[in-house]
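Entry:
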Amino acid sequence: MPWKKRSVMDERMRFVIRLKDGESMAGLCREFGISLKTGYKILERYETGGMEGLSDRSRRPVRYANQLPEAVEAAIVRVRREKPHWGARKIASGCCASCRTP
């Protein structure tokens, strides 16, 4: 007998359907091998987003902590192209007033 392949989306759907049928959260979480916290997270995503809420979400960060504003980055790139022999210290020391960050 071949193994049945199931996607993560199908498993989440089965989890929610059985939960809505009245089975206990703790028992289902044990059976599916997930924590209670994950079980409640799946249920909340289903209630807020329906079936689309059960799909995987991007793990890409919303913003990058050390990223410079686009205007400052563009100014640095412009000065770097005009003066390729200048280093970071000279660019940041005041040769490019718009490159300074507040």
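The chain has a mean pLDDT of 85.
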